Amino acid sequence: MRNKIGSLFVLFTLLVIGVAANHIPVKAPRNLKVLPNTISDQRLDSIMQTYNKALGVGCDFCHVKSKMFNLKDGLDYAADGEPMKENARDMMRMTIDINKNHFYNNKSKEPYLLNTITCNTCHRGETFPTDH
Question: Which one of 25, 36, 95, 121 has the lowest number of neighbouring Cβ atoms within 10 Å?
């Protein structure tokens, strides 16, 4: 009788742990090299949407299709497989540097939030800016 109760207790405990594990939200992996790792998902999404609009592209311009994750949009945002992603990082560093070194008059903002010069300054909705 004691073995049955002990077995039932262990089985019930494993069942509760299994159900709880299925309800723990899994955070998508990040691979941030320019923006701070502490940036909120909302702020990150907002910044990425401004890049999409400024360049007239979708997320798949810089992000590769997922091979491992079953994500709703099918993209692996942490992967570095698309060369355009590193190019975008270089452009981010360039705009941050320009803003920080030439227009950084608001010390209460982080340099990556400054937007005196933005992607749209040169791109104006075009994937590759034209020389004017």
Answer: 25
Q: Please say whether the beta carbons of 55 and 125 come within 8 A.
A: yes
What pTM value is reported for the model?
0.72
Report the C-alpha gap between 58 and 80 in whole angstroms.
16
DSSP for 51-72 reads HHHHHT--GGGTSEEPSS---T
Going by the DSSP 8-state scheme, the letter that residue 2 receives in this structure is H
Helix/strand/coil percent split, the chain, to 5: 50, 5, 45
**pLDDT averaged over the chain?**
83
Predicted confidence (pLDDT) per residue in 78-122, tens digit: 999 999 999 999 999 999 898 888 886 667 777 777 668 899 999
CB distance 52 to 58 below 8 Å: yes
Q: Rounded to whole angstroms, how far apart are CA atoms 116 and 120?
A: 10
